[in-house]
Amino acid sequence: MISKENSGITQPVGQGALLQPERFARWAWIWAYAAIVTTMAVVRYSLFVTHGFSLSGYLTAFSLIMQGRATDLAAHSLTAFLFHQQAWGLWVLAPLVQNLGIAFLFFLSAMVIGSGGLALYGIGRVWGRSSRTAAALSSLYLLYPPLIAANVYDFHLTTWAVPLILWLVWFAVRGRWLGFGILLLIGTGLGISVTGALVLTGIGLLLRREVWRFGLVAVLFALAYWSLIHRGLVIPAWAWQGHLSLRVGLYLLWVILPLLAAIAGVIIRKRNNIVNGWWVPTAAIVVFNIARGTVSDTSPFTDHSALIGPFFALAILATGELGAKLGKVALIWSLGWVVLMGGYLYHSTWRPRPANVVELSLALAKVPPTAFLVSQSYILPHRGVTDRDFPTTALFGVPIPAGTYVLLNPKVSDGYSSSAVLTQWLNIAKSPGKSRLLYHKAGVWLFVLNRSVLPSERKR
Amino acid sequence: MHNASAPWGVRQRVVRRLAGVGLWVELTRNLASRDVETRYKHSLLGLYWAIINPLVTAAIFGFVFGVIFHVSTKPIPYVVFYLAGLTFWNFFANGVMSAVGSVSGNAALLAKIYFPRVVLPTAAVLARFIDFLFSLMVLIVFIIIYQVPVHWTSLWLPVILVMQIFFTMGIGYMVAALNVLYRDVTQLMGLLLMVWLYFSPVMYRLSGVHQNLQTILLINPVGTMIELERNVIFTGHVLHPEYLWVAVAWTGFVFLAGIALFKRVEPLFAEVM
Fold first, then answer.
1. Of A310, A328, A349, which residue sits at a domain end?
2. Which end of chain A is more exposed for a tag (fewer CB within 10 A), N or C?
3. Do B92 and B125 contact (CB within 8 A), yes or no?
4. How many distinct structural domains can be found in chain B?
5. Domain range for B90
6. Range of the domain at A224
């Protein structure tokens, strides 16, 4: 008989805490999330469905870093925004992505973000919430559309701040300084907006009596790091022009409306913990997002929208038990999210997916790896880690040199390039003096520029 | 007092855990070897059956698809192409089918002594891995006979196989636990594996099917693993590297969900059996 009775240990062999079903189930839940999100991201990628510019920007940054040309980050149109974020995490990711591929980035991102669900569950249990409430909020966190979509439809390093903040709080409520300190250091690697979020996390912790020391350390450390490394505090200017687009509507529906509903709900129920410190960072991020114009000029799936997630979840968790009725509301709310996500996925992904993937792949194979390429944002990431990409739009005012390849699929929009821009590129394709046509099939155009195209010549 | 005892407590916990793992590994190894021994005991050909089965199947399918239907898998001869796919598929399918009955078929053993029940499906899958190693030798012989060039990327094979073992064990834990409650699982798995086989690129080349269908087929982690295994051996480059990470994610999920389900159902074993 194999047991440990003789050694005075009553626990049977192999039945330690590691083998408890609950622990496996929680990890399985996170891996399920990672598997679904990674699959969605990879399928989108392999079907040539639109990715935002950020993914191409990150891939270009990785390429420049691996070539030892990090100083060019500021000069390159696609990476200038990353240069200003001052995220040293890029240097850690660059060799990993170059060697393990873009899909590794999707997988890692899904795992990192998914792990936040575990942290939230753990915090809930430490704060005395029932397993049901902690699990419900953890599931809502995993289903939070801005969080999934920011990395399924694109890639943003800053969204990693969401699980990071939750793990920071988890380490604080467990009184673990070492883990807290390590995560605080890692947080500085995710960019300037995350350093700001670290300050807000510190404020949230500072306002809770049992962990105020952790909060003080976080605030002081993040402020010190900001003043030493980042260059001053950027006060956002009001930029929203009041235009109500589909994206703004979704943002209001998924972020602002639930926020107001939750606040109203807890006020009506008159909980003792209605007024808790976590509403302060939540409100700060909402104000910041509206002020900087996130609502109007980007989608609800940006990294900035996602940053509301952890603070909002912590504010709700600190309020108290969800109760049976609120639990049902949360369930309906999350199911609503799934339905809306499904609708948006169809609207933004399945409907506009290119039918000429084979032709696109063939054309892309004709572009030498060392050549510069102008193309739409859903095509560029398929070149892998390279610093030789130009998006088709005229957003970036840089000259495009002669000898650059241009790969166009005007049948499917990337959501950024206007029809005027695409028409201009097609006119160049049809002018033998300006370009040399290499491939034209099923609406896919591949040609080489005979002369450079200056920013002043390019349409918007 | 607390500070003085803390490091000792940690050390004691680590030693205890390592001792537990050691016993766990020993038990699994013993059960796996017993499984292989009893499987071929009193049979004239013994372990040769592990070689004969894939050989005969490959010969039949090689004749039907390669000679009659002229399915092209150039530059790899169809027999070698199919045998490679079948070898890796068989490990998965046989592993799962062995795991199904591993708990319900050992009722007497479970009644006599206590040991972690999860060892049974683990040992069942690992026993089929031993069979797989024999089949792999047959594949190597065929590769030599047909003079198919093998690439150095074959060195990645153990890494992919580890992933496949974890995936097979995960499914094995699930079906072993469910089979204790519902004996239909054995029949159901037989059917499911048959469907799964056709959704995996075992007898056809993935690049030969429509692009959209390729995407759907590659979501299947077993299909991706078989494709990867064949790619690293015969072509030296992976055709769909992005799906490797999809397979990794699903493998992690299936393994953890398998153990979680097994551990949850485990307390019911005594009542049901």
1. A349
2. N
3. no
4. 1
5. 49-272
6. 119-349
